[in-house]
Amino acid sequence: MANIASQIKRNRQNEHARQRNKATRSAIKTALKRFDHAVGSGDTDAAQAAYAAAASKLDRAARRRVVHPNFAANHKAKMARRLQHS
User: Fold this and answer.
1) CB 75 within 8 A of CB 36
2) What whole-number distance in Å separates Cα of residue 60 and Cα of residue 30?
3) 2 and which of 7, 10, 18, 54 could share a cystine (Cβ 3.0–4.6 Å)?
4) Could you tell me if 15 and 7 are in contact, meaning their C-beta atoms sit under 8 angstroms apart?
5) How far lies 56's CA from each of 20, 25, 68, in Å?
6) Contact call for residues 50 and 30 (beta carbons, < 8 A)
7) Mean confidence (pLDDT) of the chain
8) pTM greater than 0.85
9) C-alpha span between 44 and 38 (Å, rounded)
10) How much is the pLDDT for 51?
């Protein structure tokens, strides 16, 4: 347990950031699953909407460094390929 005030504050800030990042990563996973479901169902309109939503979440998370930018780029490219072939 920290005794220094600045470290106590830093621990508190880290915990808030950890919870915020965890929520963001969970939202990304949900968006990716919704995209997979939409592509699997064959509904192209729903798949395009799900792609837009997932790509937006990935871009925002990459910009805030919650996920690595290459992670976002790779997933967006994979989704775009699946969207083209559906």
Assistant:
1) no
2) 15
3) 7
4) no
5) 17, 13, 15
6) no
7) 96
8) yes
9) 8
10) 98
Task: Write out the chain's pLDDT in tens, 86 residues.
Answer: 889 999 999 999 999 999 999 999 999 999 999 999 999 999 999 999 999 999 999 999 999 999 999 999 999 999 999 999 87
Total residues found in the chain within this entry: 86
Query: Which residue has tokens 């992670």?
Result: 71
Domains of the chain: 5-84 (1.20.58.110)
